Structure formats: C-alpha cells, structure tokens
Amino acid sequence: MSNQLTRRLALLDDDAHRALLGQGLRGIERETLRVDRDGLLARTAHPAQLGAALTHPQITTDYAEALVEFITPAEHDISVTLHKLDAIHRYVYTKLGDEMLWSGSMPCELPDEADIEIANYGTSNIGMLKHVYRRGLALRYGKGMQCIAGIHYNYSLSEKLWQVLSSSEGVAHERRMPLRDFQSESYIALIRNFRRYSWLLMYLFGASPALSTSFLRGRAHALETLSDDTLFLPYATSLRMSDFGYQNDAQSGLTPHENSLESYVNTLMDAVNRPYPPYQALGTKKDGEWIQLSTNVLQIENEYYSTIRPKRVIRTGERPIQALCKRGVQYIEVRCLDVDPFEPVGISLETGRFLDAFLLFCALDDSPLIAPPDSAVHARNFARTVKEGRRPGLRLERAGEEIELQAWASELIGRIRPVAALLDDQHNDDGVHAASLAAQQAKIDNPALTPSARVLDEVRAIGSSAAFGLRQSALHAAYFRDSALMPAEEAMFDELAATSRTEQAAIEAAPGPDFDDFVAAYNGSTLCCD
C-alpha cells in the first residue's frame, strides 16, 4: 500500500472524519432500447405518456428515438440509487404497452439504417440543436452505433472530505491552492488511476462478448461465427468497448491529457475547433437542412467517447467545457460499464458496492502523471482485455514488463481491500463492500463466473445472441409488470411527466433567435452568461 493511501485511510478512519465517506453522491444513467414483442427495434415515437424527452429529469432518450435513458437522482448510498432506478423501470412499463426494454448493451436485430429514427426533441432551438447533433453522429458513425446501450455511473466525494485532505496535506498553505482547484486536481488524479486500472472493470463486468450480424452492416471484422445471426470472440468481455463500438478515424488520435484539468480542457477545445477534412467535404447543411453542428473533429466535447469524464452540472445553454473552466470538477462519470443482462435494472448492488470501493481507491492512492508512452500502454491493456480478457494466461503490460491479468487483478483486489474495510466501518460494519470484493476475486479465480462467460454460455446454448436478449428482456418485463408501484410513486412520475410537457411547450412558445444564429452562439460558447 502506498504511503499516501495509508496516510489518507488513517485520516478518514478517524472518528471525526469517517462520516464524510457517506456524504458523497451516486447516480446512474441506464440506456436501453425499446423493442417489440419479437425483439425487434420499436418503430414508435418516444411514448408521450412518459413526458417530454427534452425536459424530463429522469426519463429521456439518447441517440435513437427508441433508445430511452433513465437518470436517477443523486443519492448518498447506491442501494437507494438502485431502488429509484427500479421505480423508474416499473413506471415506464406501465406506459409501454406490448413493448419491452432490451436487456443488453449490444442492439437487437436492427432494420435498415433509413428505418432507425434519430431522437427528436421538438421544435425549439435547443431541441433542434440536440437533434442535429445526433444527425451528425449518424453521419459520422452510422445509426447502428446509436443503438448501443450502457450504464453510466456518476460518483462524487463530499467537498468537506476534499477540504480535510487539503488541510491535512498542507496544500492550501504550501501551494496556495484554492479548495476548488485541489478538488479538481484530485478528481483528475482519480481519472489517471482509473486509466491505469479500468481494464479490471472490463474483465469483471464486461457482458457483451457476442453481437448480432445486423449490427456490423457488412463492415470488415475478425469475429468468429456462432450462428447465422451471431458473431463473437471466444474470450471477449466487452465488444461494446472495443473498436466495434463508438469509434471512428477522426477520434483515433484524440487522447485528452489528464495530467491537469487545464490540459484536458485544452485538448477537447482543440478538437471542437479543429476542422476535419472528410467532415468539411460533407458540410453542415444539405439541401438547406442541417446535417451536423460543425465540420470539426468533434461537434461538441461530449462526442469524445471516453471511458470516464470529469463533470460539472451545466447551466442552460452552457457547454460542459465552460462549466469545468468556471467552477471546476464536481464529479466523475464512469462510462465503460456494459448493461448486465442478468439484472433487471442492468446493474447489481454488488457491482455498485465494488465500484464505490474501486473509485475511492483510485481517488486516495498515489497517481503519478501519465507520459504519452504510458497512456499508450493503458490503452493497449484496456483493448486487450475487452477482446481477450478471459484468454488463459493473458498478459498485460506494467512498468515495462508483462504480468498475467489474473495475478495483477488479485493484487489490485488486495490493495482495494483496506478501502472496502473502511467503507464497511462507515456503513455500520455490515461487510457489504468486503463481500463484493470476495465475489470479484472469485471471478478472477474462475473466469467462467464472469458475466461475459455466462452470457456466451447462454448464447451458445440457445444458438443466438438475439434469442438470448429477447428471453432476458421478456423475463425482466414480467418482473417489473408483476409488481406495481405504490400509488404515491406513480403519482409523482405522472406529475414529472406532465411538468416536462408543460416546460417543453413553454420553451417552444418563447421567442428566440434564428436557428442558424443559435448554433453560431452555441459554437461560440456565448449562450450562457454568469
């Protein structure tokens, strides 16, 4: 254990500080496709009864019109977060009719590109901005990519905890660093450690070793054939996070520097302002219709498909980079988690407990700066794990040498164990975090227990990834439909839906600039004022 980790754990184990560990926040964003009873992509619009996708705080759409996204309120305990995610699912199922929510990350059988509808957000300038951005994504990546689903895990620590660490380590006095900057720097340090170790999450929680042949649209690949409608890799953990996922040539050389918030922001600002010749050839309009927001490497900074992001809650019209520059990092968003097809809400409480221990470890441990060669090593370790993570004897790179994945994974679990113990002490010593670590160690000892191995076993047994997905979707649909919400919960969601429709109508009725001027103002970062 590093000196910094030992020192910080001892500090937070003090009676005066232990409660701070329970004051951070956890939130989940779960994406999932709406499908019909046959497991085919729903061709219907986002159900009006759910509310307006533009303004609803918990139920919206992502890229495709059929790709719904559920956003939980931020809570101090992941068990409460998951309870609220469960309630969202139950409410949505009261409005879906015969449709279901797809159980996995990789899409169901997809129709032709022309028949996949891009998400719509109404006629307001901000709604059209969101829609045109998605038109640009379809142009750049293809609509099939807009049907991939994932779990995003939002995580923060208490600002009082950062204050305790800053004071203990003399940062404010010795370096004259404001608390906001110390907090931002600390989250960036967490992200660096996440880059070093996130391959472990892909091994433990990757759940997309196979995909439908319809997804690749004739694209060249080196996947193996399992059946007429299914392709796979025998030792893959997450094809979603491989080069079959949301990537393209324009982003291939984009690696934000995460040695400081400033370098991270500068890299993304360069990408959103640097023209990319193939996109320039397409232009921003075709036959007078907007087809993308810009012809630069990224239309907006969120187009960068990172496994983790520093985040700040944004204000109306504000760009994410603006928020980070003005007010610093508020939380981090983990974006590499597959939807778990064995869990009705897509993620288990046990997984959440492990993530809390893992992310706290990343936040407290030493986090040296990352040189470009080291960044390339981290990327190779991640890429190797998503495609070959369960291969017997698979070796990763560490400090210029090779090490077996299993050996390094077990070592990491050992380093995280004191962090889990501290969380359990704060959690009335119920042992839930230690139990989660034990469950992950079992997966390391026996790869057959990993979600990716279990999914592949089921797909092989049934003969089709689509059939497996449909079976799990039907099981989950029955689970949610068999247990109704409490009347007060249903009334709350009804009110949220009604309010969201009223808010969208008000936005659309309000006067505003011409859409061309609106886009220019957004691209120029002048829509939001302090």
From TrEMBL:
E.C. no: 6.3.2.2
GO biological process, one term: glutathione biosynthetic process
Enzyme class: ligase
Keywords: ATP-binding, Glutathione biosynthesis, Ligase, Nucleotide-binding
Alphabetized GO MF terms: ATP binding; glutamate-cysteine ligase activity; metal ion binding
Pathway: Sulfur metabolism; glutathione biosynthesis; glutathione from L-cysteine and L-glutamate: step 1/2
Domain Glutamate--cysteine ligase positions: 10-383
Catalytic activity: L-cysteine + L-glutamate + ATP = gamma-L-glutamyl-L-cysteine + ADP + phosphate + H(+)
GO cellular component, one term: cytosol
Family: Belongs to the glutamate--cysteine ligase type 1 family. Type 1 subfamily.
Alphabetized NCBIfam families for the sequence: glu_cys_ligase (TIGR01434)
Protein's name according to its UniProt entry: Glutamate--cysteine ligase
Gene responsible for this protein: gshA
